[in-house]
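Notes from the pairing session

We agreed to fold both candidates in a single pass and log them together. This is the raw record for the first candidate, unedited. Please don't reformat it; downstream parsing expects exactly this layout.

Candidate A
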Amino acid sequence: MAPRTRELLIDAAVDLLDAGGPEAVTLREVGRRAGVSHNAPYKHFASKEALLAGVAAAELTRMGGELAALRAGSMPEGGVLRAALRDYVAWAVAGPARFRLVFGVWSAPFDDLVLAVESARNTLLAIVGDAQRAGQLPPGDTERMMSLLQAVTHGAVDLTLSGHLATDGKGNADADGLVDDLLRYLRASVAVTPL
């Protein structure tokens, strides 16, 4: 069965986004690339921002599905969290325009994006909670721990993308290495007992 028009439009928008950033995405060009009439995109998306929100929602839905599959699989203790963060770094570095889009500012809430954010977020929160219960992360506020992990991972990716991090140059590290360092420090802190 052929993909639905909405999916074709999102796929075309992703191609344009990857090639030239959000500025390259226009509803007319998306329609042309998807092989539909120039009015078809407007039947699915009220505006360019709505289309980009659809792209962000599709990305988060896919990522959330991958997180859920990791969590449901069988990995050694702490492996799920590391694999999730490794996948996040790989996705962000391979698709910087998608990464920046997903974490961009939106002028209004878009229902499909809100649902995708909540679903992916809840799955990541569960993975972090699992790692805390397994002693791979310090106990405490799981939400706050997830925010710390996201902030460091996001920051390391952003520094990598802007050329301020390289294993053979600035920072003497890459995003994956810094995430590994953070996880190692957090795991070590669990083992340390206060006096």
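Candidate B (folded immediately after A)
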Amino acid sequence: MRAAYVLNGPNLGRLGRRQPEVYGHTTHADLAAHLVEYGRGVGLEVEVRQTDYEGRYIEWLHEAADAGVSCVLNAGAWTHYSYAVADAAALVTYVEVHISNVHAREDFRHHSVLSAKAAGIIVGCGLRGYDLALTHLAAGVDSGA
């Protein structure tokens, strides 16, 4: 079974408690358990990680690159400004995920520094967006980057 990482960035550890009207009531732990099980169903061994520390996120991307592991990335706020995360992400095949429709929110959320190298972008599908991203990775997509 191929490995895949789901890497969640800042504040996503607060799922279920942070703005439930936007992000829902499912906790990060519940999401992680679901994604591991869902991944098995599509032929992926999924590891879910979350951090509020940008350097750790970049180290995980380097680890994925060295191991040839594809990723689902929800980089949170780093999506909109972190060229360091974008440079590290460019080393792997990844699908960018946003739980909410970022284009219907504040202006600063309308631009992603990650999108140009993504194998796919899923926006506004709620937590189901992660399932869609894993299905896309399981199909053997390549970003062409």
